[in-house]
C-alpha cells in the first residue's frame, strides 16, 4: 500500500515531517537537560568555593599559613562523599586531598591555570582525567591580605553518574518519541486505508462504467466527502445509463424516421421505373417522392442543427422582424393538415401591433413549426390547438395550447433534454424541443412548457423586443457583431454564471 499513491505521499510528507520534528524536539530537550544538570553542578561547586574567603583568607599573610589552613580544610571537608577537594600550592602542586590518598601530581589541571590568569580568581574545566573518568573541576585562588597568591583550592566532581542519568532521560525521550511515531503510524495507516479502500473501489467502479456497465453502484459506508463522492459516482452512472438508453432510443427512432420516407421513395421510384402506369399514378408517385424527400431533408437538417448546437457552431443572422408575420405564416402552413386530421387549429389574432424584435427569421419559423407539429401530433382527432400572441413589459409571448394527451409529471422536467421522448408510440427523434429551446436561448428568450396528463399541453415562447434589449443589454445571451449588410450575426454564446 505504501509503494505509491496517497499512502506513500502521507508516509513521506506527514510521517517524515513528524519524525523530523520529534528528532528536533528530543535533541533540544536533551541539550536543555544536560545544560540544566551541568549548570546545577557548576553552581554547587561555585557556591562551595565562595566560602573560602571566610574560611581561609581572613588574616593570612604567608604561604605557610595557607598550607596549614588548606590541609585542615580538605581533611575536615564535610561533603567528601559528594566531591573531592584539593589544596593546591601556588606552584601547582597538590598539597592534600579530601580523599586521604596520595595525590597524583601528574594530573592536568586546566582550571587551576585558568584561575591564576583570571581576574575573578575562578577557573572552570570539564574533561577526562588520566583514569578516563569524566569530571568537572573548579579552582579558586586564595590571596593574602596584600593581594599575593598563596595557593588555590580545587573542587572536583565525577560526571559519570550525571551522564548516565542524562542518558536515561534521553533514552526515555526517544522511547516516548518512538511510541508517538508508532501510534501515529498505526492511526495514519487506519486513516489512509479508510481513504484508499473506498478510492480503489471508486476507481474499479469508474473503470466498469467506462466500459459501459452503467448498472454498477458503489456502496456508501460513511456520510462524509467520500460518501458524497460515492453518491456522485452512482448518480453519474444512473445519468449515463439513462443517456445511453435515450441515445439508443434516439438511434432507433431516427432509423425509423429515415426508413419510412426512404421506403416510400424507393417503392414509388421502382413503380415509376417499371413503366406501364397511367398519368394519374405517375403524378401521385412523384408527389409522394417529393413530399417524402422534403420530409427526409427536414430530418437531416434537424440532425445537423442538433450537431451544430452540440459543437457550439450554430449561428444566427439577426434582423429587425415582425414576429406576428412569421407566426401567421407558420399557422397557415398547418391549417390544411389540421383540417385533414380532423383537428381544429385556432389562431387568436391580435389587432394590436406588436413591437419589432431582433431575430433570425428561419430559426424562429423553425421553432413555431416544431411546436405546432408537436401540438397536432399529440392531439387526437376532434381536439383543438389554439395559438395566440401578446406583448407584456417589453417581451412578446407566443402561446400554443393543445387539448392533447398531455405530458406525465415525471417526464415534464426532461422533455427539453436531448434524445428524450416522453411518448415512444409517436413518431419523432426526441431532439426537436432541444433544438427549439436552444434557438430561443440564442434569441435571449425562453421556451416554457406546462402540461397535465390527459388535459393537454401549453407552450409559452418568450422573446424580448428590440427596445427591451437596447435598454437592457445584459439580457442578451449572445455576443453579436454587425455584418456588411447591416444585419447582426451571433458569433458566440455567452457562458452562464
UniProtKB/TrEMBL annotation:
This is histidine kinase. One of its GO terms (molecular function) is kinase activity. InterPro entries: HAMP_dom (IPR003660), HATPase_C_sf (IPR036890), HATPase_dom (IPR003594), His_kinase_dom (IPR005467), HisK_dim/P_dom (IPR003661), HisK_dim/P_sf (IPR036097), Sig_transdc_His_kin-like_C (IPR004358). It comes from Anaeromassilibacillus senegalensis. CDD domains: HAMP (cd06225), HATPase (cd00075), HisKA (cd00082). Its main location: membrane. It comes from the Bacteria. It holds the Pfam family HAMP. It is an enzyme of class 2 (transferase). It is found in: Membrane. The keyword Membrane applies.
Amino acid at each position: 500500500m505504501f509503494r505509491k499513491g496517497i499512502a506513500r505521499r502521507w508516509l513521506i510528507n506527514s510521517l517524515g515531517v513528524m519524525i523530523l520534528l520529534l528528532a528536533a524536539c528530543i535533541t533540544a530537550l536533551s541539550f536543555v537537560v544536560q545544560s540544566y544538570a551541568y549548570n546545577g553542578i557548576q553552581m554547587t561547586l561555585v557556591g562551595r568555593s565562595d566560602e573560602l574567603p571566610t574560611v581561609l583568607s581572613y588574616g593570612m599573610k604567608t604561604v605557610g599559613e595557607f598550607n596549614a589552613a588548606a590541609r585542615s580544610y580538605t581533611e575536615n571537608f564535610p561533603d567528601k562523599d559528594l566531591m573531592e577537594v584539593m589544596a593546591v600550592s601556588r606552584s601547582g602542586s597538590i598539597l592534600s586531598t579530601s580523599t586521604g590518598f596520595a595525590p597524583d601530581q601528574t594530573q592536568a589541571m586546566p582550571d587551576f591555570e585558568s584561575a591564576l590568569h583570571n581576574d575573578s580568581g575562578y577557573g572552570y574545566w570539564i574533561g577526562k582525567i588520566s583514569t578516563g573518568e569524566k569530571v568537572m573541576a573548579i579552582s579558586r585562588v586564595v590571596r593574602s591580605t596584600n593581594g599575593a597568591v598563596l595557593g588555590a583550592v580545587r573542587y572536583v566532581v565525577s560526571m559519570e553518574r550525571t551522564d548516565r542519568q542524562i542518558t536515561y532521560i534521553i533514552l526515555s525521550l526517544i522511547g516516548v518519541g518512538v511510541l508517538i511515531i508508532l501510534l501515529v503510524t498505526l492511526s495514519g495507516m487506519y486513516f489512509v486505508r479508510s481513504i484508499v479502500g473506498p478510492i480503489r473501489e471508486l476507481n474499479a467502479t469508474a473503470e466498469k462504467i467506462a466500459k459501459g456497465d452503467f448498472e454498477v453502484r458503489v456502496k456508501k459506508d460513511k456520510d462524509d466527502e467520500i460518501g458524497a463522492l460515492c453518491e456522485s459516482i452512482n448518480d453519474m452512472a444512473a445519468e449515463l445509463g439513462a443517456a445511453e438508453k435515450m441515445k439508443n432510443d434516439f438511434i432507433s427512432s431516427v432509423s425509423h424516421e429515415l426508413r419510412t420516407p426512404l421506403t416510400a421513395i424507393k417503392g414509388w421510384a421502382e413503380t415509376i421505373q417499371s413503366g406501364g402506369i397511367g398519368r394519374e399514378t405517375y403524378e401521385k408517385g412523384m408527389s409522394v417522392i417529393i413530399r417524402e424527400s422534403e420530409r427526409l431533408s427536414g430530418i437531416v437538417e434537424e440532425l445537423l442543427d442538433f450537431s451544430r448546437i452540440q459543437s457550439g457552431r450554430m449561428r444566427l443572422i439577426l434582423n429587425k422582424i415582425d414576429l406576428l408575420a412569421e407566426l401567421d405564416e407558420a399557422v397557415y402552413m398547418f391549417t390544411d393538415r389540421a383540417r385533414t386530421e380532423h383537428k381544429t387549429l385556432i389562431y387568436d389574432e391580435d389587432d394590436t401591433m406588436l413591437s419589432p424584435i431582433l431575430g433570425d427569421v428561419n430559426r424562429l419559423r423553425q421553432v413555431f413549426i416544431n411546436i405546432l407539429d408537436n401540438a397536432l401530433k399529440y392531439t387526437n382527432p376532434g381536439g383543438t390547438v389554439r395559438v395566440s400572441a401578446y406583448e407584456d413589459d417589453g417581451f412578446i409571448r407566443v402561446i400554443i395550447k393543445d387539448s392533447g394527451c398531455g405530458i406525465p409529471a415525471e417526464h415534464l422536467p426532461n422533455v427539453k433534454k436531448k434524445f428524450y421522448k416522453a411518448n415512444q408510440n409517436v413518431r419523432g427523434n426526441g431532439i426537436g424541443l432541444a433544438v427549439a429551446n436552444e434557438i430561443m436561448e440564442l434569441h435571449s428568450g425562453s421556451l416554457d412548457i406546462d402540461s397535465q396528463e390527459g388535459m393537454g399541453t401549453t407552450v409559452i415562447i418568450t422573446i424580448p423586443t428590440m427596445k427591451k434589449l437596447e435598454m437592457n443589454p445584459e439580457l442578451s445571451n449572445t455576443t453579436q457583431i454587425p455584418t456588411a449588410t447591416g444585419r447582426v450575426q451571433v458569433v458566440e454564446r455567452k457562458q452562464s454564471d
